[in-house]
Amino acid sequence: MDQVRAGERRTRDLSWGDGRARALMHALARDAATRAGFEVCAIEVVRPQGLLEFVAIHGDTVHAEERLGTASGLAEMELALADGDTIGHFVWIPEERFSDEALERLDGLVVVPDLPDTDHPDAWRAMDMLVARVTDERGDLRGLLYLDVPLDLRRPDKQRLFEISEALSMTLRSIVTAIEREEYADHMRVIRATRRLARSNPARHDVGHLVREARSTLLGALSVDELEIRLFIDDTQSPDSLRLDMAPDVRRALDRAAARAWAAQHVIIIEPDQVWGDTELATACADWFTGALREAGFQAVVVAPVGVDDEVLGMLIAARRTGARRWTDGEGVAALELGHDLGRAIANAHATQRERRLLAELRDLEETRRKFLRVVTHEINNPMTVIAANAEFLTGSEFVDERDRRRARAIVRGAERLAGLLEGLALLSRVSDPEHPPARMRVDLRQVVQDAASSMAAVAEQAGITLNPAPPGEPALVLGDPREVTGAVANLVDNAVKYSDEGDEVWLSVEVDDERVVFTCRDEGIGISEADRAVIFTPMFRSTNDAALRRPGTGLGLGIVREIMQRHDGTVEVESELGRGTAVRLSFPRPSTS
What we know:
alpha+beta; elongated
């Protein structure tokens, strides 16, 4: 704490108490003086950084105007109290008992009254001191109560000191209650303000909204005239309501000071003649702030750092105009606590905002991908149709020899594979588009499976594979797009036949329970390795199994099936073992009967 003048220091951790609390302390001081029979009673409250601040002085209006709001070191008073005798709640220190060191340390800190000259041996002396320790239930020192100038101008004897202690015991407890109530009121104000911020849904998702709401809320919570919130992580700022028009170098110096304040966990006080709490800022900018604050009419500006964990995110700058009530301790603590609460809220809102921005970018990329697929499939389809038609013509032409006919048939096969790939890409683009949800109607999954089996029967028979369709039964209804449901089922049946060998069997079944309708396609084919099972739903994935790679395919089938099932609130599960077959299950939610 900077020295103002020898033996006296002004509190810069924000002065104690609002008007009501100080009025109560004055009433307690007046009552204590009356009860004890003294002319003067003063009350000091223990402050941060080892200081004592005068909060009430009764019976000495001249010194009250000079001393209220000033602070002295607690260590100096503790040294003086060590020279006295403890009697009840009080410590009695006759003038002659003060050590030279104590007198030197107290010089300028205590008020020495003007007393009439007297030769009476029990006369009250100018440096006599009667002090009560004000402690809370834990025994922590919360303040000191001084009695000075007894009405009879006589030193009290031991019996009288015990009587005074007993008479003022309730007053001392009332002082502790007033101190604790002031702290509680400030903390509740902070809690209410913080809860209002936390409950705001828009503020949880938008930093700009949070800053605007925080400014509006905290103007009232902190009882300030102007408030600005400056962030280092976002371009969104509250308006420069302080209108200090800080020069760039001053603004940078204040930013650095806020970072230091966050590291040290304290606030910075800027007054027209002094900067408290940051020596570097005071050295660099004290003169600038002196002129700016006086021009703006501010008696003080409080800078509270805003951050989370070990990262400073910005600062809260609050100002009261000249003539406004003094800052309180609780408000200083509240401002710092708000820096923590606001920092967490800003960090969360910033993260949410960033996630939303990334999601928007991903949606844009996905839309670009879908547009690209649509354009590619459309643009390639036309020339492929021409190529395929001409190749078909050449395969049956009598004007080409057998060698060219074989080449034409190879072109046809390649065109057919490319056409299949384009068709798969178009289907994948359609079923992965959230902007175009599937149609919702009742579809008989059992009938879809039977139709798929009928369509694949000839292919399976030609390959020497036994296809066992699902047996007839009651309709197994699902809610979905008939074309997409049919596509998913047909894809699985086609894969089962394609990746089975001659003599293998494929089984198709449909099961219905209270909640799900499940289609299962099980084969005895080449199977899927454990490594491949982890990525088989990735579009364009082809197996690492040589036996699978020798068979035609685009790698789109299972990716399309998964997209279809997700669109229908269903699931797809694969059980397989390399060389021992595969079972794939499509599980649809059962529609309500209503």
